[in-house]
């Protein structure tokens, strides 16, 4: 917008100087005009960008343009001064009207989410120290308070559609048809003198054969090549020779830490591996049951070749070598000594991630997966033990966002992603069952934040359709953070582990917490109070059901 300093403040829309009220006329001549005669015309330009505090004024000399407007001013400096004073007055008025104490301006927030529109289109743990961090309460943002009624209607719709219906468990023959190779490799019986499920498998290679040449974990990840280089060197020494044949000891895990992400599973893993009778897979989180056996390396990269079950079993060879050492010792042979070493696996996706089913199994169940991860684990290991670590799903989601979001992280951005995810979840619930939406690959990929991971009771009920309740230990991160020794004793008892010396116990229980929150994430502070209230409303019916299933009101998370 241009301003005529000599004869007008504001030009008409067509921006012609001849339209000036004091210089009107089609034949206007600057030299003859009594107002403009002998004056240098200095047009004043205002920055085209939206002004928030002060107008940015740029003065340029332009002898080719004429000037028009309302009120004639003789000096450009005077116009700039008056214009600046007007803007400053407006700013001061806005502080007075809205309350300078709260640091608010009478302007709409640039982060305001606004009206909702329909859009049906389209890893891993939390530290204990985060549970003890104390943040100062964040200031309330008026624009997000206005969001609450609209989002509450969405949550009410979702709540009205919730039904916890028991799923039908598939029979063994159906599972065999889906994974015939897996059933041909894993036997239905294990060694009787080993607490851990193990068996001997004939090895047909020779001393020059590389047993790990085709292992997908070694091929696709440079991080694990050092481990497999070591296994190659010692492989032949750990074969069992009997009647001119060679056998290798194969093992599956005795227990699984199955979830959830950002709930302290890394800390639990790091402490358990210090126990003298516990071993883990060569990789903390193989994600084989949920992703790798379907050929998923990274979800964003699509599908690759499927990892065969042999690749998964290779990850337990280090532990199998130690178990074999116990079984082949003279004491074991003479006295029938029992192997008490057990193996664990800690993929935090095992409990909840069934996203790949739609690509491999027949979709004849109205959007619900006909087979789940637990169906196959139970088929091979009906006596497996499962450990689940949970936390307040509201805080879990925020921690998940801070960990996985790559750029532009802020409490405002988190709020908007929560709002968008809730509407996408509502759209699904209007047409499908709760289970169908929870396991919906398209929906889960579309939601900006992983709301579904915090629906603990949906997953737990599905695991309880195949495993007995006494085979599952459910812990809370809040309890683990406040009393590590107590929760670790619960785990030792659940796994039936032997007693420890005071020194061993101190090493396990007094170690510093693992996987702490990054300093740059911690500096963002807590989520907005309105966002927390929204998520509390969303997760409340699921937490209520979880507390009923576990007979423990602590899982209501009322005090967090």
TrEMBL record:
Biological processes, Gene Ontology terms: hexose biosynthetic process
Ranges that cross the membrane: 78-97
EC number(s) from the headed UniProt entry: 2.8.2.-
Keyword Transmembrane helix: yes
Keyword flag Transmembrane: yes
One Gene Ontology term of the molecular function aspect: N-acetylgalactosamine 4-sulfate 6-O-sulfotransferase activity
Similarity field: Belongs to the sulfotransferase 1 family.
Entry protein name: Sulfotransferase
């Amino acid at each position: 917008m241009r301003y005529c300093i000599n004869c007008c403040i504001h030009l008409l829309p067509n921006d012609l100087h001849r339209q000036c009220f004091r210089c009107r006329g089609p034949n206007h001549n600057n030299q003859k005009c009594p107002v403009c005669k002998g004056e240098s015309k200095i047009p004043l330009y205002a920055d085209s960008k939206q002004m928030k505090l002060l107008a940015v004024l740029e003065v340029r000399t332009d002898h080719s343009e004429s000037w028009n407007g309302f009120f004639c001013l003789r000096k450009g400096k005077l116009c700039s001064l008056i214009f600046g004073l007007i803007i400053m007055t407006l700013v001061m008025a806005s502080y007075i009207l809205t309350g300078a104490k709260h640091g608010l301006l009478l302007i709409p927030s640039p982060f305001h989410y606004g009206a909702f529109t329909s859009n049906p289109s389209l890893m891993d743990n939390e530290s204990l120290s985060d549970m003890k961090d104390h943040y100062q309460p964040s200031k309330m943002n008026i624009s997000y308070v206005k969001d609450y009624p609209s989002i509450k209607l969405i949550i009410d719709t979702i709540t009205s559609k919730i039904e916890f219906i028991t799923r039908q468990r598939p029979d063994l023959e159906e599972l065999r048809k889906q994974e015939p190779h897996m059933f041909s490799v894993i036997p239905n019986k294990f060694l009787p003198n080993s607490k851990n499920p193990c068996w001997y498998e004939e090895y047909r290679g020779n001393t020059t054969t590389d047993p790990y040449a085709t292992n997908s974990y070694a091929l696709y990840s440079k991080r694990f090549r050092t481990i497999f280089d070591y296994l190659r060197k010692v492989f032949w020494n750990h074969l069992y020779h009997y009647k001119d044949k060679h056998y290798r000891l194969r093992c599956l895990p005795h227990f699984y830490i199955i979830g959830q992400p950002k709930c302290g599973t890394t800390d639990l893993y790091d402490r358990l591996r210090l126990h003298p009778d516990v071993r883990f897979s060569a990789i903390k989180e193989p994600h084989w049951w949920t992703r790798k056996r379907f050929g998923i390396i990274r979800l964003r990269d699509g599908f690759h070749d499927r990892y065969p079950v042999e690749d998964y079993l290779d990850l337990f060879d280090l532990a199998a070598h130690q178990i074999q050492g116990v079984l082949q010792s003279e004491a074991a042979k003479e006295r029938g000594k029992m192997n008490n070493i057990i193996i664990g696996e800690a993929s935090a996706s095992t409990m909840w991630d069934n996203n790949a089913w739609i690509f491999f199994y027949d979709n004849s169940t109205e959007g619900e997966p006909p087979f789940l991860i637990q169906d196959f684990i139970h088929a091979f290991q009906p006596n497996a033990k499962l450990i689940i670590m949970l936390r307040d799903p509201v805080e879990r989601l925020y921690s998940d966002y801070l960990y996985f979001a790559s750029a532009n992280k802020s409490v405002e951005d988190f709020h908007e992603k929560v709002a968008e995810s809730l509407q996408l979840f509502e759209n699904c619930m209007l047409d499908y069952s709760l289970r169908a939406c929870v396991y919906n690959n398209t929906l889960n990929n579309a939601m900006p934040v992983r709301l579904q991971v915090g629906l603990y009771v949906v997953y737990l009920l599905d695991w309880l359709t195949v495993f007995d309740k006494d085979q599952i230990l459910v812990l809370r991160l809040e309890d683990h953070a406040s009393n590590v020794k107590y929760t670790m004793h619960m785990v030792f008892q659940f796994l039936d582990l032997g007693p420890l010396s005071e020194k061993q116990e101190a090493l396990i229980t007094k170690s510093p917490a693992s996987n702490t929150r990054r300093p740059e994430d911690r500096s963002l502070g807590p989520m907005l109070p309105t966002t927390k209230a929204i998520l509390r409303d969303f997760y409340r019916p699921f937490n209520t059901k979880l507390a009923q299933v576990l007979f423990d009101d602590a899982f209501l998370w009322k005090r967090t």
